[in-house]
């Protein structure tokens, strides 16, 4: 039914043979036109028919996610390609293949991690050997220098002193029986922990230790975590086994890695050579392991998209099969679901193809069920209309087959936005942004965008229409970045003194300009109004009255659409006791105000419309005097006032009384049916009686009273709410004028080109940030409120639920593997 109403739906029942159930559900998923109902709501996921299959598929999903994480870690991306005929694999084959690949990848990763840990340890050992050698070499050189100094007081020989360069002179003079051999340990500690490490060591040993440290220039891979960490080399000298035990525990607590360090220089060189040789061997082994891992990941990446799609489809199929009711005796599945009436031939064709492909001897039985259950709402949209439908659905999904506001929102939403945003310079900037999103549509579809960018891309066609309407209203307001342009001819005003032009007329700000012709400016606002002393009064009056006219027109449209709803659902009560009084009440008051505005514009007279509307209520019979616009105006206003007063009880009382009368007639007719012996529909009658007994006149009356009060008060508040069109338009124009006058023109008064450039840059930034982003968002939200509250509440219930068919096309969005 196009976009005016939702598609006509029907509840269908499918009786599917067990041997063709999988193929049938698969074909239905490819078609995407049936919303299945869960016929096993009381069963848990583990009690359903295909619980084991779902468990297997869950394990396959885990493996695929693991493969994807490994590819991201390795910097690879899956290959997107079309599935070639003959490459299809069954679920069992895919399960075996995924298990083999996971086992192989886990083994490779385990060996690689083990080798990488060993490699990192050897790298740290190599650094310890280098830094330790430098420390011992500098210590020996210092000891040699001291030995060359003049001997004093029985010093040891130079040769023996060099052998123990780290011992103090006093220690070397003590008796051999009283000396304790110094021990030392070397290693690496994280740089961030060095200060605490040194402090704890000093306290634990009571200062009986010597710590020497040197920073490592580049971060190294930590063997425990595999992360890059900045570390510091340390060598710690101590005396005694107790001190050694304490120090070892402290090193373990601070995550320090300890490595052996030989004292003899020859052994140091030999150990360093061995470490370098082992590093070279490990690097070769690691490269081979990484190459093998990349080969496996390349194989996985070539098929990952295909496997993911396969698993995702199978998961959806078995999930749907679990929603069906299984008839064990007949060896079949029974399913129920909603589908569009127009799609019946397509569904039957898919069911026939599924039966043929599965070699089933019995075809699937397709039959329509009759129910009183409310069907889901389904609107067929495209990429252009989808964004407008989403705007409406954000308020509430429409009731089944009620009038869809999205059809009218396509025009009214961008137009009301443009009324508040009217500037054709800003509109062109907005248009360029929308065209950029539309031109690069295919590229952005395949990318993951941020929240804000994704929202803008989804509404690209809304932004396009908003920009086009903004350009139109900008021409109407004659504003180009707040600058008026003479695009449509000469102004209707001139300077009273012929020797002056309009721009330099001295009377422009005093007595004013002179109108030299009766014909108005060809299109839009005469540019001469901009910058004049009467600009704000003129534009305020025009935009305020225009806002009221647009508001009354849109609210009347909403009431008229309520008539189409009532007519479609055959509700004569809503037509006579809701549509008619609402239309009379709104137009007898605010429709009359709109008529006066148009009449005042056409006559060029100066009556006070505030005075007319106020005294229409306070003193309806009073003579209007100079505020009179037409003959018989007083009598017309009295008739309109009386009609609007009659419309209020018209909305309040007749509908509840009529519903009560209908209820009593049905109740009386059912009683006569029982007395006359009609027993063939006892169960149905009992159900109807149960429904009818829920009718409460007091509840209906209170509900109608609330609805009436809401409409009467809303007619006033909603009309006033449309004045936001005037307020936002005025604010946008004044902000634009301030930025242009106080930023751009101010900078242009200077002859320095740098100041001009700075002024232009600042003007561009504030225009983009404030006028093109913040003001766009503000106008968008206000237009959204006008549609949701002032327009849609006249006819739109929005209490339905959306049609979500079982479709493979939406699986990627709903189930991210």
Features:
flat, 817 residues, alpha+beta, 25 helices, four-stranded antiparallel beta sheet, five-stranded antiparallel beta sheet
Summarize model confidence as the mean pLDDT.
86
General form: flat
The fraction of residues in strands falls at 5-15%
CA distance, first residue to last residue? 36 Å
- The number of helical elements comes to 25
Radius of gyration: 43 Å
Structural class: alpha+beta
Main sheet record = 5 strands, antiparallel
- Assign a percent range to the helix content: 55-70%
Q: How many beta strands in the DSSP annotation? A: 13
- What's the assembly state of these chains? single chain
- Low-confidence blocks of residues: 151-179, 674-692
Transmembrane segments: 415-439, 460-477, 546-564, 576-599, 634-653, 754-774
Membrane topology: Multi-pass membrane protein
Function: Essential component of the vacuolar proton pump (V-ATPase), a multimeric enzyme that catalyzes the translocation of protons across the membranes. Required for assembly and activity of the V-ATPase.
Subcellular location: Membrane
Architecture blueprint of SSEs:
Blueprint: E1 9-17, H1 21-31, E2 35-36, H2 51-73, H3 91-148, H4 158-163, H5 169-172, E3 182-190, H6 194-205, E4 209-215, E5 220-221, E6 228-229, E7 231-239, H7 241-253, E8 257-259, H8 265-321, E9 325-327, E10 332-340, H9 344-357, E11 365-369, H10 386-395, H11 406-421, H12 424-439, H13 441-445, H14 451-458, H15 460-477, E12 493-494, E13 514-515, H16 535-568, H17 572-603, H18 609-618, H19 633-652, H20 654-675, H21 682-692, H22 697-721, H23 724-748, H24 753-791, H25 811-814
Antiparallel strand pairs: 1-10, 1-11, 2-10, 3-7, 3-8, 4-7, 5-6, 9-10, 12-13
Helix pairs in contact: 1-8, 1-9, 2-3, 2-8, 3-8, 6-7, 10-11, 11-15, 11-23, 11-24, 12-15, 16-17, 16-23, 17-19, 17-22, 20-22, 23-24
């Amino acid at each position: 039914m196009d976009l005016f109403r939702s598609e006509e739906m029907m509840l269908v029942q499918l009786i599917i043979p067990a041997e063709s159930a999988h193929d049938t559900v698969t074909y239905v998923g490819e078609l995407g036109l049936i919303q299945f109902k869960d016929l096993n709501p009381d069963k848990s996921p583990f009690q359903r028919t295909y619980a084991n299959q779902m468990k297997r598929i869950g394990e396959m999903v885990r493996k695929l996610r693991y493969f994807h994480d490994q590819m991201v870690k390795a910097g690879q991306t899956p290959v997107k390609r079309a599935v070639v005929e003959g490459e299809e694999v069954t679920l069992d084959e895919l399960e075996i293949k995924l298990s083999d690949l996971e086992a192989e990848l886990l083994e490779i990763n385990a060996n690689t991690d083990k080798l990488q840990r060993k490699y990192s340890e050897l790298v740290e050992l190599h650094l310890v050997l280098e830094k330790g050698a430098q420390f011992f070499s500098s210590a020996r050189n210092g000891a040699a220098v001291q030995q060359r100094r003049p001997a004093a007081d029985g010093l040891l020989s130079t040769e023996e002193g060099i052998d123990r360069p780290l011992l103090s002179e006093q220690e070397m003079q003590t008796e051999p029986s009283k000396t304790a051999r110094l021990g030392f340990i070397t290693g690496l500690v994280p740089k961030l922990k060095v200060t605490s490490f040194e402090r704890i060591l000093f306290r634990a040993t009571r200062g009986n230790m010597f710590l020497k440290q040197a920073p490592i220039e580049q971060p190294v891979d930590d063997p425990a975590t595999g992360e890059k960490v900045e570390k510091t080399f340390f060598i710690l000298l101590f005396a005694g086994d107790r001190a050694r035990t304490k120090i070892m525990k402290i090193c373990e607590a601070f995550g320090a890695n300890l490595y052996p360090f030989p004292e003899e220089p020859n052994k140091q060189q030999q150990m360093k050579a061995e470490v370098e040789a082992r590093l070279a061997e490990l690097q070769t082994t690691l490269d081979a392991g990484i190459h093998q891992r990349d080969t496996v990941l390349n194989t996985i990446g070539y098929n990952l998209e295909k496997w993911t799609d396969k698993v995702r489809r199978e998961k959806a199929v078995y999930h749907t099969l679990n929603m069906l009711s299984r008839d064990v005796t007949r060896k079949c599945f029974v399913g129920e679901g909603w589908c569009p009436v127009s799609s019946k031939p397509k569904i039957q064709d898919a069911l026939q193809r599924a039966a043929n492909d599965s070699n089933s001897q019995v075809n699937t039985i397709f039959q329509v069920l009759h129910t009183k259950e409310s069907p889901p709402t389904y609107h067929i949209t495209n990429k252009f209309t989808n964004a407008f439908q989403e705007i409406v659905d954000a308020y509430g999904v429409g009731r089944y087959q009620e009038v869809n506001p999205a059809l009218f929102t396509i025009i009214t939403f961008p137009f009301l936005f443009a009324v508040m945003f009217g500037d054709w310079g800003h509109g062109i900037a907005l248009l360029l942004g929308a065209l950029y999103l539309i031109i690069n549509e295919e590229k952005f579809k395949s990318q993951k965008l941020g929240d804000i960018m994704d929202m803008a891309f989804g509404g690209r066609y809304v932004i396009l229409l908003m920009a086009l309407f903004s350009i139109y209203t900008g021409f109407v307001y004659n504003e180009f970045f707040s600058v008026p342009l003479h695009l449509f001819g000469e102004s209707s005003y001139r300077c009273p003194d012929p020797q002056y032009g309009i721009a330099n007329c001295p009377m422009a700000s005093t007595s004013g300009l002179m109108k030299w012709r009766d014909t108005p400016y060809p299109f839009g606002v005469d540019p001469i109004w901009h910058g004049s002393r009467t600009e704000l009064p003129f534009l305020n009056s025009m935009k305020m009255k225009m806002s009221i006219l647009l508001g009354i027109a849109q609210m009347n449209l909403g009431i008229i659409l309520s008539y189409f709803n009532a007519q479609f659902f055959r509700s004569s009560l809503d037509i006579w006791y809701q549509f008619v009084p609402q239309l009379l009440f709104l137009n007898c008051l605010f429709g009359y105000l709109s008529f006066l505005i148009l009449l005042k514009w056409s006559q060029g007279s100066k009556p006070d419309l505030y005075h007319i509307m106020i005294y229409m209520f306070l003193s309806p019979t009073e003579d209007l005097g100079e505020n009179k616009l037409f003959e018989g105006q007083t009598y017309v206003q009295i008739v309109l006032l009386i009609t609007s007063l009659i419309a209020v009880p018209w909305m309040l009382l007749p509908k509840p009384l009529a519903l009560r009368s209908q209820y009593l007639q049905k109740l009386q007719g059912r009683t006569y049916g029982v007395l006359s012996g009609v027993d063939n529909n006892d169960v149905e009658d009992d159900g109807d009686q149960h429904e009818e007994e829920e009718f409460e006149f007091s509840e209906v009356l209170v509900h109608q009273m609330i609805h009436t009060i809401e409409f009467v008060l809303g007619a006033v508040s909603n009309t006033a709410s449309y004045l936001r069109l005037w307020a936002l338009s005025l604010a946008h124009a004044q902000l634009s004028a301030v930025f242009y006058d106080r930023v751009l023109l101010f900078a242009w008064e200077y002859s320095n080109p740098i100041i001009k450039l700075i002024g232009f840059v600042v003007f561009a930034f504030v225009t983009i940030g404030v006028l093109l982003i913040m003001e766009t968002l503000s106008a968008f939200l206000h237009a959204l409120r006008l549609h949701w509250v002032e327009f849609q509440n006249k006819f739109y219930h929005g209490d339905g639920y959306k049609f979500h068919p079982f479709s493979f096309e939406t699986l990627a969005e709903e189930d991210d593997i």
